[in-house]
Amino acid sequence: MKKGHFYIALIALLFCGVMTGYSQNNTAQNDTLKKFIQKKRAYNKKYGYGYRIQLYNGFETEVKKTRAKFRIKFPDVKTYIIYKSPEWKVQVGNYKTKLEADRALLAFKDEFYGALVVPLGR
User: Fold this and answer.
1) pTM of the model as a whole
2) Please, which pLDDT band fits residue 76 given cuts at 50, 70 and 90?
3) Could you tell me the CATH number of the domain that includes residue 60?
4) Where do the SPOR domain residues begin and end (predicted)?
5) Rounded-to-10 torsion of CA 22, 23, 25, 26
6) 49 and 120 in contact (C-beta within 8 Å)?
7) CB of 108 within 8 A of CB of 91?
8) pLDDT at residue 27 is higher than 60
9) 28 occurs within a structural domain
10) Is the dihedral of CA 96, 119, 60, 86 positive or negative?
11) Phi-psi sector, 93: left (phi>0), alpha (psi -120 to 50), beta
12) What is the count of structural domains for the chain?
């Protein structure tokens, strides 16, 4: 009796595995789906959210001091003060890729050791 249950369970598992593999294989062949994926990738590349470097988050007075210090050291980089209750944040730059943001972070790390790359949106 136990062998019968074992064989039924084994057959059911094999059937589910074959059907799952078959369904995944069919969706990968769909040309319309591939076109939509290519359009989405192109859109994200052009209009993607991007990244910023966050220098500090915490109290409002410290945020303003950090922003002023950053503006003196790097006047060409755009800075943002963001308030999300209960914390204030100083974020700088507008970078399209994480690689660009990481490269810029290397220049800022010496002066602002707590800086980190944060994604926008998403």
Assistant:
1) 0.61
2) very high
3) 3.30.70.1070
4) 50-118
5) 120
6) yes
7) no
8) no
9) no
10) positive
11) left
12) 1
pLDDT of residue 65: 95
Closest CA to 108 of 54, 38, 31: 54
Residue 45 lies in a domain: no
Look at residues 61, 55, 96 and name the one whose alpha carbon lies nearest to residue 79. 55
Residue range(s) defining the domain that contains residue 91: 51-119
Residue 71's pLDDT is 95
Phi and psi at 91, nearest 5°, equal -125, 145
Look up residue 19 and give its two tokens. Answer: 């059907």
* Residue 68 is assigned to a structural domain of this protein: yes
